[in-house]
């Protein structure tokens, strides 16, 4: 499993269908606003007799707003078209004072936010900004040299004309600078979100792989323990068969009893092997440690260990004890061990636990409850292993938060050929 994080993305996600529809509605809304603004400006007489007819205002409104419907598909072309329409409208005195500026700002912002080729995005925006300031200088020069004298006065150390020019330059610096900066920031944020999504997907794949590996390792451990269980039956069969051979001639009844024990052990071993083949699909592993076989009689040791490690735990046996199969005892022991380990790890300070072993006529039930807090995230791998163990013995396992607080794990495994303990 690779632990190297994925490289940072160099491209943002393409626009979604919802974003493209939003662009269309934005263009339509700005078009309506531009038409209304131009009409009201014409009524107000912003430019007097120099105001073109309403037909030209409609052409200007369409040119400065409708390209925005394609702003995420072709941002550079849209910016150039909107900028040309805006310059033309200002030059020929279209009486729209605000909507065109909004459209130009949105177009420039979009180039910064959506063009993956950052060099091209920079060049296009710089060209538009330079053209804008050149156009501004030209119009300022024409106003200052207008022989009619209708413009602001140029008299004085800091004339009204000079103040007007300074205001225009300052406003445009903040206007284009804001569009440039916000576009770049939006692009950087989009890249960061893309990187986060890719990393999240990678971590999810790694988590699934880790879970699969953990389950496989737990199955191998079950197989190792089953090795000892089967060895127990086989060794018992060998002893009983030897005893039957020795007394076969002088005590046929004893030999018959011994052979019956051999038969019972063989049936039990075959049943446990069948359960193994149904639940385990991993290759056989190496021999297990000598102490890998554990039994229900050792549950008291687990409880004592929990008490010694800060989790007050009680242990109760309910019903007439019988002895389940070796496999069932191993799996119930491991379930209790894992459940108490989880309680110590997650329940928090002040938690207490209770272990109850119930014997019914046809099943043995192990219930582990604890008080304290419950994990809010997804179930851990320990629960997966406990369910695997319960299934390996032909039983079921329930695990989850209790209605009155805390957590409960309940495993129920049927008894087969059980004998009195």
Task: Describe what you observe in this structure.
- The chain has 421 residues and is an alpha+beta fold.
- The protein is 62% helix and 9% strand.
- The chain contains ten helices and seven strands.
- It has a five-stranded mixed beta sheet with strand order 1-3-4-6-5, covered by helices on one side. The chain has a two-stranded antiparallel sheet with strand order 2-7.
- A hairpin with a 3-residue loop joins strand 3 and strand 4 (363-370).
- Helix 3 packs antiparallel against helix 4 (99-114) and helix 6 packs parallel to helix 10 (381-392).
- Mean pLDDT is 78; it is low at 281-293 and 417-421.
Calculate the terminal CA-CA distance, rounded to whole Å: 48 Å
Output the helix-strand order. HHHHHHHHEEHEEHEEE
Number of strands: 7
State the strand order across the main sheet: 1-3-4-6-5
Give a short account of the largest sheet.
Answer: 5 strands, mixed
How much beta, percentage-wise?
Answer: 5-15%
Counted by DSSP, the helix tally is: 10
Provide the gyration radius in Å. Answer: 41 Å
Silhouette: rod-shaped
Task: Tell me roughly what share of residues is in helical segments.
Answer: 55-70%
The oligomerization state is: single chain
Pairing-aware structural class of the strands and helices?
alpha+beta
| Sequence stretches where pLDDT stays below 50 over 5 or more residues | 281-293, 417-421
Mean pLDDT: 78
Question: What is the element layout, followed by pairings?
Answer:
Blueprint (H helix, E strand, L loop, with lengths): L16 H28 L9 H12 L9 H17 L7 H16 L3 H27 L15 H88 L4 H28 L19 H10 L4 E6 L3 E2 L2 H21 L6 E7 L3 E8 L10 H12 L3 E6 L5 E8 L4 E2 L1
Parallel strand pairs: 1-3
Antiparallel strand pairs: 2-7, 3-4, 4-6, 5-6
């Amino acid at each position: 499993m690779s632990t190297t994080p994925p490289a940072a993305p160099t491209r943002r996600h393409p626009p979604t269908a919802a974003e493209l529809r939003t662009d269309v509605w934005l263009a339509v809304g700005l078009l309506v606003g531009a038409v209304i603004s131009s009409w009201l400006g014409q009524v107000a007489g912003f430019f007097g007799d120099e105001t073109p007819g309403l037909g030209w205002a409609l052409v200007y409104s369409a040119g400065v707003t409708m390209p925005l419907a394609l702003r995420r598909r072709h941002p550079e072309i849209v910016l150039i078209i909107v900028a040309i329409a805006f310059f033309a409208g200002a030059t020929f005195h279209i009486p729209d004072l605000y909507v065109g500026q909004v459209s130009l700002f949105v177009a420039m912002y979009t180039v910064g936010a959506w063009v993956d080729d950052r060099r091209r995005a920079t060049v296009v925006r710089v060209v538009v900004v330079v053209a804008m300031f050149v156009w501004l200088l030209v119009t300022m020069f024409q106003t200052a040299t207008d022989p009619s004298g209708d413009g602001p006065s140029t008299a004085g150390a800091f004339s009204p004309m000079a103040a007007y020019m300074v205001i225009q330059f300052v406003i445009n610096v903040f206007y284009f600078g804001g569009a440039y900066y916000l576009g770049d920031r939006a692009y950087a944020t989009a890249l960061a979100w893309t990187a986060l999504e890719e990393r999240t997907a990678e971590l999810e794949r790694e988590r699934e792989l880790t879970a699969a590996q953990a389950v496989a390792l737990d199955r191998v451990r079950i197989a190792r323990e089953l090795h000892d269980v089967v060895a127990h039956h086989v060794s018992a069969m060998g002893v009983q068969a030897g005893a039957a051979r020795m007394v076969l001639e002088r005590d046929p009844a004893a030999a018959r009893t011994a052979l019956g024990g051999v038969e019972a052990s063989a049936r039990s071993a075959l049943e446990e092997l069948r359960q193994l083949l149904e639940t385990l699909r991993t290759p056989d592993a190496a021999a297990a440690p000598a102490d890998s076989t554990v039994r229900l009689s050792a549950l008291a040791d687990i409880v004592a260990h929990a008490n010694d490690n800060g989790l007050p735990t009680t242990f109760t046996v309910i019903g007439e004890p019988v002895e389940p199969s070796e496999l069932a005892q191993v799996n119930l022991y491991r379930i209790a061990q894992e459940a108490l380990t989880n309680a110590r790890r997650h329940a928090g300070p002040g938690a207490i636990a209770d272990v109850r072993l119930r014997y019914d006529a046809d099943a043995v039930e192990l219930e582990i409850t604890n008080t304290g807090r419950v994990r809010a995230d997804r179930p851990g791998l320990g629960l997966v292993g406990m369910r695997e163990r319960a299934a390996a013995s032909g039983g079921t396992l329930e695990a989850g938060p209790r209605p009155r607080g805390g957590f409960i794990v309940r495993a129920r495994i049927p008894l087969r050929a059980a004998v009195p303990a």
